[in-house]
Write a structure and sequence with these properties.
It is found in: Membrane. The protein has 397 residues and is an all-alpha fold. Helices cover 78% and strands 3% of the residues. The chain has a single domain, classed as Up-down Bundle (Rhopdopsin 7-helix transmembrane proteins). The termini are far apart.
């Protein structure tokens, strides 16, 4: 009976990981590629350091999806685990799976801090693209060096559940403790959570204070758009790392933001700015609703794993199904950013249409027209001047 339950749990886990994982992988690759295209195509984004951080995060998300989620689908859904036979892949996959999310999180933290300092006269000079490039490169080198033990301590060993098979896992108990408690809980969890909450709220306060300053409309619109994009991405990722506390915080501040925007109609604020503030608030409320729905399974799983242990086959069934579900939702944090922006921001929708149709599609059509013209056979022009023949040549000689 226990073997049947275990087999059923593995079958359900494989279906969840394969079907939902393939959907997340496909949409994530497309969404992050479109993010990169938009950020690199529009001058309003190319000139900002915040867009550079968002582009870096999109690249890191692509690597995370390809290197880890795709291999997870092969392992769970199709029983293709190259890490069991290749020591190089056994060390490379967890190394990339460690660095990629750290780079994504670091880039989003930098983007949040960037939005806080972008409107401060004292700190505005740090918001330069070359500084963003230096910080990104330094951060990448730092994470690569810090996580070298991941390469050292990941090896192919006998599987604990089945001594007949081999598995790629951490062989050092102390490093395993560090990896689970410090890397996952602190680096991926509370550290970036605190940074992004603090600077996100401060950036929100800065944007609110814009109505009291004389800021050009174009710069105001761009800064508010980028800030809203950073904040909704921050709120989405936070939902996977904390439970009801962050939901309460975000609901409270979301309602406060809604009240603030409603109160704008009593102030002397231009209509365009009022509509933008309403748009940002709607993005916040929509994102909060999405986070409440998606983060509940993760919170239930964390609570279950904190207070219970696996005792029998039924517990193992619940554990494996919840693990697969919450793990696949974790990968969704690397794929949904573009679609959240697209659904919640009308301006972003116009920008993506303009980039794809107004820039790249016209460019491709222009290239096709030029190639078609070059491939056409140009007819030879006839003139009244007689062509030279052998007789003419002999006569001339």
């Amino acid at each position: 009976m226990s073997s049947n339950v275990t087999d059923l749990a593995k079958q359900i886990s494989g279906i969840i990981t394969t079907d939902i994982g393939l959907f997340i992988l496909t949409t994530g690759l497309l969404g992050n590629i479109l993010n990169i295209i938009v950020f690199l195509s529009l001058k309003t984004f190319r000139e900002t350091s915040c867009a550079f951080y968002l582009t870096s995060a999109s690249f890191a998300n692509l690597i995370q999806l390809v290197a880890t989620l795709f291999s997870r689908i092969l392992i769970t859904g199709y029983n293709i685990d190259l890490t069991q036979t290749s020591l190089f892949l056994c060390k490379l996959r967890p190394y990339v799976a460690t660095i990629a999310p750290l780079m994504s999180i670091s880039s989003m933290c930098f983007a949040t801090i960037d939005q806080f300092t972008s409107l401060s006269i004292r700190w505005r000079h740090f918001n330069q693209r070359y500084i963003a490039a230096y910080l990104t490169i330094i951060t990448l080198i730092f994470w690569c060096l810090v996580n070298i033990p991941v390469i050292i301590y990941n090896n192919i060993t006998m599987a604990s559940t089945n001594p007949v098979t081999w598995a790629c896992s951490i062989t050092n108990a102390n490093f395993s403790l560090y990896y689970n408690r410090f890397y996952i809980s602190f680096l991926l969890g509370f550290l970036q959570l605190i940074i992004r909450i603090i600077f996100g709220l401060m950036a929100f306060i800065n944007v609110r204070s814009l109505r009291n300053n004389q800021v050009p409309i174009i710069r105001l619109e761009r800064d508010k758009q980028i800030t809203s994009m950073v904040l909704i991405q921050t709120r989405f990722y936070i939902s996977f790392l904390l439970g009801f506390l962050q939901l309460i915080i975000r609901i409270i501040f979301g309602l406060m933001a809604f009240i603030n925007v409603r109160s704008l109609r009593n102030n002397q604020v231009p209509i365009i700015r009022l509509e933008r503030d309403k748009q940002i608030t709607s993005m916040v409320l929509i994102q909060t609703l999405v986070d409440v729905i998606i983060s509940l399974p993760f919170f239930i799983y964390i609570t279950y794993r904190s207070y219970t242990t696996i005792k029998d086959a039924n517990d193992y069934f619940v554990f494996l199904v919840l693990l697969s579900t919450t793990n696949i939702l974790y990968y969704a944090t690397f794929s949904l950013g573009f679609y959240i922006y697209f659904c919640s921001s009308s301006r972003f929708r116009k920008q993506i249409i303009y980039v794809l149709v107004g820039i790249h599609l016209k460019y491709c059509c222009r290239i096709n027209v030029q190639e078609r013209n070059n491939n056409q056979i140009i007819p030879q022009l006839t003139t009244n001047k007689p062509a030279l023949s052998m007789n003419n040549i002999h006569t001339a000689q």
